[in-house]
Amino acid sequence: MRVDPREIQLKDGIAVMIEDYYNGTYGWNTIVPWPGRCQLIIELVHSSEAVVDLISQRATLVNLNRGFRGIFDNDDVECDINLSDPDSTTCDYSQKSRGITWYCNKPQNITSCPERVPTYKIMKKDKTVLGDQPLFKTGVNWQTEISNSGAMFYAQGTTEDFPRSSFKCNLRTASIRSKHKMSSHRPTGYFHEGRWVSLLCDNHIIPLMRECLKHKSVYVIGDSTIRQWYYSLQTQLRLRDTGLYDNKCWSMPRDGINLQDDIRIHYRAHGNPLHSSGPPESRPYIVDTLQTINGTRPTAVVFNIGSHFLPYDPSVFIQRLTGIRNAAVMLHKRYPSVQFFVKGATRFRSTAVGPLSDWLYLRTDRILRGFFNDLQYVRHLDTWEMTSTPQTNIHASEDYIEKFILLFLSYYC
């Protein structure tokens, strides 16, 4: 279910946690932070039968969405975490101790498996990604408003009554925010006049970006949603880009530098499974990137991972996170001053670009949030709540990207 109370004129809103009473009824409780006319939207995202279908399909460990083809000279073969039709000889590129599982069928024109796959291309499969179609009918039992949704109500008060936190945003309050229990029905923030207002700390006072990041390095690591951070920072900080360029491969490494303020921003992808065609340098594993970081200068690492793992059982995702967690612990031991931030998932209405269920994104977000919960130096950026109301696309607009970056800066600076 999704509950969305919003202010009529400004389309501001607040994320709501819903409690399942396990008897066919649900409840929710939230503050309404803006005075005036409001509207209550209540939506059925999935039936329980649909959720069971999503879980059972992903338990097969077979990617139903995209196919990976490894290109070896003039031959291309299937590659994946678990091959749907493995040949008699399989090339094993797994690194189990580092949380990495990956196989390719052996090309017929070679005698032994190459050390690495020269390049990849992505093939879209014909199989459905939303299970049993009768359970996924838009406007019937999938992403449809329930009866009486849209009811109007009036919230009393003035702008002076807006709830705010008295705690200053810093690395300590970021840790507190990360430990915010998912079972809690208290939201972590809300939108007012297009601005995110944190309820865990006062995020209104943010120093100038260039002053904050002067003489610092920031690594943004992950899929295309974190790559957007790099391009936004490149524009705002007027970075000179020195990365490799390939207009057919979005995941190539990017490196930007502002010589005047000695600011360095780096983008790296997160490795297979990654829905991007390209050479090996376009898909480094996060554990490899973390091992290369030199933390002798002030450094922040912001990473995200999850959306490219949605077609698989969560055990695959947990295995990968285990390797990343171990690499983060080792980096912290080498350079205790390095600061880590985990960007949460982005909630969006399913589209042709990202047709997978946002329930799967929610599951991924909760796993990601809880996995680093006991590491005090790893903070969670709750982009799920920020994109729950109002909703956005899987690739959020520049306005949203700037809000995400401001949230990060409010803690880091």
Could you explain how this protein is built, in words?
The protein is an alpha+beta fold and 413 residues long. The chain folds into 3 domains: 2-51 and 142-161, Sandwich (Immunoglobulin-like), CATH 2.60.40; 66-124, no CATH class; 171-412, SGNH hydrolase (Rossmann fold). Helix content is 24%, strand content 23%. The protein is built from 9 helices and 20 strands. The chain has helices at 48-58, 171-178, 209-213, 224-237, 286-292, 314-334, 358-371, 383-386, 398-412, and strands at 2-7, 18-20, 26-28, 36-46, 66-72, 75-80, 90-92, 103-105, 119-124, 142-145, 151-155, 189-192, 195-198, 217-221, 240-241, 254-258, 263-268, 299-303, 339-343, 378-381. The strands form 5 sheets. A 7-stranded mixed sheet has the order 15-16-17-14-18-19-20. A 5-stranded antiparallel sheet has the order 7-8-6-5-9, with no helix packed on it. Strands 1, 4, 10 and 11 form a 4-stranded antiparallel sheet that branches. A hairpin with a 5-residue loop joins strand 2 (18-20) and strand 3. Helix 4 packs across helix 9 (398-412) and helix 6 runs parallel beside helix 7. 38% of the residues are buried.
